[in-house]
Specification:
single chain, 231 residues, mainly alpha, 9 helices, 0% strand
Length: 231
Protein backbone atom coordinates (compact mmCIF):
# COMPACT_ATOMS: atom_id res chain seq x y z
CA UNK A 1 0.00 0.00 0.00
CA UNK A 2 2.75 2.50 0.95
CA UNK A 3 4.72 1.71 -2.21
CA UNK A 4 1.66 2.12 -4.42
CA UNK A 5 0.77 5.41 -2.75
CA UNK A 6 4.33 6.62 -3.30
CA UNK A 7 4.17 5.58 -6.97
CA UNK A 8 0.85 7.40 -7.36
CA UNK A 9 2.21 10.65 -5.90
CA UNK A 10 5.75 10.68 -7.33
CA UNK A 11 4.97 11.51 -11.01
CA UNK A 12 2.72 14.37 -9.87
CA UNK A 13 5.56 15.85 -7.79
CA UNK A 14 8.01 15.47 -10.68
CA UNK A 15 5.76 17.29 -13.15
CA UNK A 16 4.94 20.03 -10.62
CA UNK A 17 8.64 20.61 -9.98
CA UNK A 18 9.34 20.65 -13.72
CA UNK A 19 6.86 23.52 -14.12
CA UNK A 20 7.60 25.31 -10.84
CA UNK A 21 11.38 25.46 -11.26
CA UNK A 22 11.07 27.17 -14.64
CA UNK A 23 9.37 30.17 -13.03
CA UNK A 24 11.73 33.15 -12.95
CA UNK A 25 9.82 34.72 -10.04
CA UNK A 26 8.48 31.94 -7.83
CA UNK A 27 4.82 32.10 -6.83
CA UNK A 28 3.74 32.28 -3.17
CA UNK A 29 3.46 28.82 -1.64
CA UNK A 30 -0.02 29.31 -0.16
CA UNK A 31 -1.95 29.90 -3.43
CA UNK A 32 -0.02 27.06 -5.09
CA UNK A 33 -1.03 24.64 -2.34
CA UNK A 34 -4.60 25.94 -2.44
CA UNK A 35 -4.72 25.35 -6.20
CA UNK A 36 -3.46 21.82 -5.62
CA UNK A 37 -6.08 21.29 -2.90
CA UNK A 38 -8.96 22.77 -4.90
CA UNK A 39 -7.94 20.70 -7.90
CA UNK A 40 -7.91 17.60 -5.69
CA UNK A 41 -11.35 18.40 -4.28
CA UNK A 42 -12.79 19.11 -7.74
CA UNK A 43 -12.48 15.38 -8.41
CA UNK A 44 -15.49 14.81 -6.14
CA UNK A 45 -18.08 16.75 -8.20
CA UNK A 46 -16.35 15.44 -11.35
CA UNK A 47 -17.04 11.83 -10.32
CA UNK A 48 -20.69 12.62 -9.56
CA UNK A 49 -21.21 14.52 -12.83
CA UNK A 50 -19.47 11.84 -14.87
CA UNK A 51 -21.58 9.09 -13.31
CA UNK A 52 -24.75 10.98 -14.23
CA UNK A 53 -23.56 11.69 -17.77
CA UNK A 54 -22.53 8.06 -18.23
CA UNK A 55 -26.13 6.99 -17.63
CA UNK A 56 -27.05 8.66 -20.91
CA UNK A 57 -24.42 6.82 -22.95
CA UNK A 58 -26.53 4.59 -25.19
CA UNK A 59 -23.98 4.45 -28.02
CA UNK A 60 -24.05 1.20 -30.00
CA UNK A 61 -20.67 1.46 -31.72
CA UNK A 62 -17.22 1.57 -30.14
CA UNK A 63 -16.30 4.88 -31.80
CA UNK A 64 -19.47 6.69 -30.71
CA UNK A 65 -19.12 5.22 -27.21
CA UNK A 66 -15.50 6.39 -27.07
CA UNK A 67 -16.33 9.92 -28.21
CA UNK A 68 -19.26 10.23 -25.80
CA UNK A 69 -17.28 8.87 -22.86
CA UNK A 70 -14.15 10.86 -23.70
CA UNK A 71 -15.70 14.26 -24.30
CA UNK A 72 -19.03 14.34 -22.44
CA UNK A 73 -18.08 11.84 -19.77
CA UNK A 74 -14.57 13.07 -18.97
CA UNK A 75 -12.92 15.95 -20.83
CA UNK A 76 -15.73 18.52 -20.65
CA UNK A 77 -16.73 18.16 -16.97
CA UNK A 78 -13.13 17.79 -15.77
CA UNK A 79 -11.68 20.68 -17.73
CA UNK A 80 -14.65 22.94 -16.92
CA UNK A 81 -14.18 22.27 -13.20
CA UNK A 82 -10.45 22.95 -13.46
CA UNK A 83 -11.10 26.14 -15.44
CA UNK A 84 -13.69 27.43 -12.96
CA UNK A 85 -11.31 26.75 -10.08
CA UNK A 86 -8.54 28.60 -11.88
CA UNK A 87 -10.74 31.52 -12.88
CA UNK A 88 -12.47 32.19 -9.56
CA UNK A 89 -9.42 31.69 -7.33
CA UNK A 90 -6.60 33.06 -9.49
CA UNK A 91 -7.64 35.33 -12.35
CA UNK A 92 -7.99 38.58 -10.40
CA UNK A 93 -5.33 37.95 -7.77
CA UNK A 94 -2.42 40.40 -7.48
CA UNK A 95 0.19 37.64 -7.46
CA UNK A 96 -0.94 36.58 -10.94
CA UNK A 97 1.42 39.19 -12.38
CA UNK A 98 3.46 37.35 -15.04
CA UNK A 99 2.56 35.48 -18.20
CA UNK A 100 4.09 32.21 -17.02
CA UNK A 101 2.02 32.34 -13.81
CA UNK A 102 -1.09 31.20 -15.66
CA UNK A 103 0.66 28.00 -16.66
CA UNK A 104 2.00 27.42 -13.14
CA UNK A 105 -1.38 27.82 -11.43
CA UNK A 106 -3.19 25.86 -14.12
CA UNK A 107 -0.82 22.92 -13.73
CA UNK A 108 -1.18 22.93 -9.94
CA UNK A 109 -4.98 22.84 -10.25
CA UNK A 110 -4.91 20.14 -12.90
CA UNK A 111 -2.40 17.93 -11.11
CA UNK A 112 -4.35 18.28 -7.88
CA UNK A 113 -7.19 16.66 -9.78
CA UNK A 114 -4.85 14.13 -11.39
CA UNK A 115 -3.41 13.25 -7.97
CA UNK A 116 -6.82 12.22 -6.63
CA UNK A 117 -7.54 10.23 -9.78
CA UNK A 118 -4.10 8.60 -9.79
CA UNK A 119 -4.31 7.45 -6.18
CA UNK A 120 -7.62 5.70 -6.88
CA UNK A 121 -6.42 4.00 -10.06
CA UNK A 122 -3.00 2.97 -8.77
CA UNK A 123 -4.22 1.58 -5.43
CA UNK A 124 -6.77 -0.44 -7.37
CA UNK A 125 -4.60 -1.49 -10.32
CA UNK A 126 -1.12 -1.94 -8.90
CA UNK A 127 2.40 -1.23 -10.11
CA UNK A 128 1.65 -1.78 -13.83
CA UNK A 129 -1.06 0.87 -13.73
CA UNK A 130 1.26 3.19 -11.76
CA UNK A 131 3.98 2.97 -14.41
CA UNK A 132 1.59 3.41 -17.34
CA UNK A 133 -0.12 6.40 -15.76
CA UNK A 134 3.24 7.95 -14.82
CA UNK A 135 4.22 7.88 -18.51
CA UNK A 136 0.92 8.93 -20.05
CA UNK A 137 -1.88 10.09 -17.73
CA UNK A 138 -0.04 12.42 -15.35
CA UNK A 139 1.93 14.18 -18.12
CA UNK A 140 -1.33 14.24 -20.10
CA UNK A 141 -3.16 16.19 -17.39
CA UNK A 142 -0.13 18.44 -17.04
CA UNK A 143 -0.02 19.14 -20.77
CA UNK A 144 -3.78 19.86 -20.94
CA UNK A 145 -3.11 22.35 -18.14
CA UNK A 146 -0.23 24.05 -19.94
CA UNK A 147 -2.56 24.71 -22.88
CA UNK A 148 -5.22 26.06 -20.52
CA UNK A 149 -2.72 28.22 -18.62
CA UNK A 150 -1.12 29.60 -21.77
CA UNK A 151 -4.36 31.07 -23.08
CA UNK A 152 -5.48 31.95 -19.54
CA UNK A 153 -2.48 34.26 -19.24
CA UNK A 154 -3.17 35.78 -22.66
CA UNK A 155 -6.65 36.62 -21.36
CA UNK A 156 -5.24 38.14 -18.17
CA UNK A 157 -2.77 40.42 -19.94
CA UNK A 158 -4.77 41.30 -23.06
CA UNK A 159 -7.18 44.17 -23.50
CA UNK A 160 -10.79 43.66 -22.54
CA UNK A 161 -11.91 42.99 -26.11
CA UNK A 162 -9.70 39.90 -26.36
CA UNK A 163 -10.25 38.50 -22.86
CA UNK A 164 -13.35 36.44 -23.72
CA UNK A 165 -11.67 35.02 -26.82
CA UNK A 166 -8.62 33.82 -24.89
CA UNK A 167 -10.68 32.52 -21.97
CA UNK A 168 -12.73 30.47 -24.43
CA UNK A 169 -9.55 29.15 -26.03
CA UNK A 170 -8.15 28.34 -22.59
CA UNK A 171 -11.08 26.01 -21.96
CA UNK A 172 -11.69 24.70 -25.47
CA UNK A 173 -8.11 23.74 -26.34
CA UNK A 174 -7.69 21.83 -23.08
CA UNK A 175 -11.00 20.03 -23.70
CA UNK A 176 -9.90 19.18 -27.25
CA UNK A 177 -6.56 17.73 -26.13
CA UNK A 178 -8.17 15.84 -23.25
CA UNK A 179 -11.03 14.54 -25.38
CA UNK A 180 -8.79 13.25 -28.17
CA UNK A 181 -6.46 11.64 -25.63
CA UNK A 182 -9.31 9.83 -23.84
CA UNK A 183 -10.97 8.82 -27.12
CA UNK A 184 -7.83 6.97 -28.14
CA UNK A 185 -7.66 5.24 -24.74
CA UNK A 186 -11.32 4.17 -24.87
CA UNK A 187 -10.87 2.74 -28.35
CA UNK A 188 -7.70 0.93 -27.25
CA UNK A 189 -9.59 -0.54 -24.31
CA UNK A 190 -12.45 -1.83 -26.44
CA UNK A 191 -10.73 -3.66 -29.30
CA UNK A 192 -8.74 -6.86 -29.75
CA UNK A 193 -7.62 -6.36 -33.36
CA UNK A 194 -3.82 -6.20 -33.18
CA UNK A 195 -3.46 -4.00 -36.27
CA UNK A 196 -5.92 -1.41 -34.95
CA UNK A 197 -4.34 -1.56 -31.49
CA UNK A 198 -0.97 -0.76 -33.08
CA UNK A 199 -2.46 2.13 -35.09
CA UNK A 200 -4.16 3.62 -32.03
CA UNK A 201 -1.02 3.23 -29.93
CA UNK A 202 0.99 5.07 -32.59
CA UNK A 203 -1.74 7.74 -32.58
CA UNK A 204 -1.41 8.04 -28.80
CA UNK A 205 2.36 8.47 -29.01
CA UNK A 206 1.95 11.03 -31.82
CA UNK A 207 -0.56 12.99 -29.72
CA UNK A 208 1.75 12.98 -26.68
CA UNK A 209 4.67 14.19 -28.80
CA UNK A 210 2.50 16.95 -30.30
CA UNK A 211 1.26 18.07 -26.87
CA UNK A 212 4.79 18.11 -25.45
CA UNK A 213 6.01 20.23 -28.37
CA UNK A 214 2.99 22.54 -28.04
CA UNK A 215 3.55 22.89 -24.29
CA UNK A 216 7.31 23.46 -24.38
CA UNK A 217 6.95 26.09 -27.10
CA UNK A 218 4.27 27.99 -25.14
CA UNK A 219 6.21 27.71 -21.89
CA UNK A 220 9.31 29.15 -23.54
CA UNK A 221 7.24 31.93 -25.13
CA UNK A 222 5.72 33.11 -21.85
CA UNK A 223 9.04 32.89 -20.01
CA UNK A 224 10.69 34.93 -22.78
CA UNK A 225 7.97 37.61 -22.58
CA UNK A 226 8.36 37.81 -18.81
CA UNK A 227 12.15 38.21 -19.08
CA UNK A 228 11.70 40.92 -21.72
CA UNK A 229 9.34 42.83 -19.43
CA UNK A 230 11.77 42.58 -16.51
CA UNK A 231 14.79 43.78 -18.50
Amino acid sequence: MNLLLFLAILPVIIFLLFIYLKDTQKEPLKPLLLCLLFGFLSSIPAIIIEEIIDLGNTATSLHSFALYSAFLGAAIPEEVLKFLTLYFFIFKKSYFDQNYDGIVYSVFVSLGFALAENILYVLDGGIGVAVTRAIFSIPGHGLFAVAMGYFFSLAKFSNTNKQKKYLCLSLLVSILFHGIYDSILFILGGIDNKAIILIMFVALIALMVFMWKFALKRIAKHIHIDKELLS
